Hints:
By secondary structure, the protein is of the alpha/beta class.
Amino acid sequence: MNLSLPYATSILFSFLIFSIFIPAFARGGQRSPKFSGVMNDSYVGYGRRLSEVNHSKASVDVSRGYMTNSDLEKAVKEFGRRCSNISRIYSIGKSVKGVPLWVIEISDKPGEEEAEPAFKFIGNVHGDEPVGRELLLLLANWLCDNHMKDPLATLIIENVHLHILPSMNPDGFSLRRRGNANNIDLNRDFPDQFFPLNDDVDGRQPETKAIMRWLKEIHFTASASLHGGALVANYPWDGTQDGRKNYYACPDDETFQFMASVYSRSHHNMSLSKEFEGGITNGAFWYPIYGGMQDWNYIHGGCFELTLEISDNKWPNAIELPTIWEYNKMSMLNLVASLVKTGVHGRIFSSDRGRPLPGYITIKGINYTVKAGRTFADYHRPLASGEKYEVVATMPGYKSKTTSIKLEEVTTVDFLLDPEALPRGNLLRSLCDCNCERKGSLELVEFVGISHLEVSLILIVILVFLCFLFRRKLIYNLVRQRHLTGPKRSVVV
Length: 493
């Protein structure tokens, strides 16, 4: 073909323009800040280059083979019917266009509150990253099909409440774009610790509000959101105070590295990455973002969240989905199972009446507090294995208690907290103080009179013995309630 000089020049100029600007939009997850005030070029060149997807009208339909929003809703409801004995289907809200945000809960007692950790998976945060929504349905069905057959499936179903939100951004998916129907990046729409972003509640997107309400209703221990565009497990902090790209560690940096490595090492090839050592990265070290969901979860939700980039291509051909599923299956399962295979777990009780206390758990040297559940006062504290920790339980009005553990496996520590001061005149409670102090004996002698000393001594012995039996029975019941599968060490403090 013969081309005129002007025409050839035009083609060359167009090629140069595309070669300069297209890679800028092909970075891993496209993690550009939502605002311009802290925008900088420090992260450019550090994102993973993606297989480019041509969204022109002449391109192949990339959605072919993927579930539509209608298909996804049908699949979720069908799963609920097929696996009703271990699942519950519910919605946490609606998108801008009114599409329900469906959630699958998987547990041996779905919908019931138990002294067990809760984990959530969220897919399709970005509309043009749909692999997560497909993998999460595959995960749910695998668990249903393998309950009581596969040990890992049985472990998860009987010891964890797993909540799966396949699509946080159904509108963005149908529009084939990153943002929601209002063209807002939902992973920049959460309140931020470093900059006063999104502080206006009314200004947040309905999908963001739905997630925030969700965490108020359910006390999640850990979480992961599934993205596309790179192959790495990302952990907090996602941003920095000055907006520059550098490693910015959160208080639980070691624990997050451990969790991210659980995912990476279980993956087919994530840990072999030449771009990210071990297949994991601190978010701010990769490049900073603000208004992200994972930092908000950790700060405001008491939830340890990872951001998982699970495919180099944001929107791969649907024929690649079975392979991507096989590469990520064990990673997803092991991450959830790690909640009950590692860390420290337990409950907090009052020593005087044995009632649950919704207190707090801290680890000396780590500036982060985990709150126990309201009903059962159960706590679930992720920690990196192989380390020594001092675990502290506190509750207003009670004396705090501390114990040391060496975390080589899952460890259960139940705390019995003593009231700071006993009400005067409460004789029985004084006698049943865990120390059974001599002071209580003297008060009783004074109460019954010197002339009945023998009777008093017998009564004291009986009450002390009953106190001993009560405490022993309480400890026995606590240890018996520990039903986490696998090796563990139980302690009552």
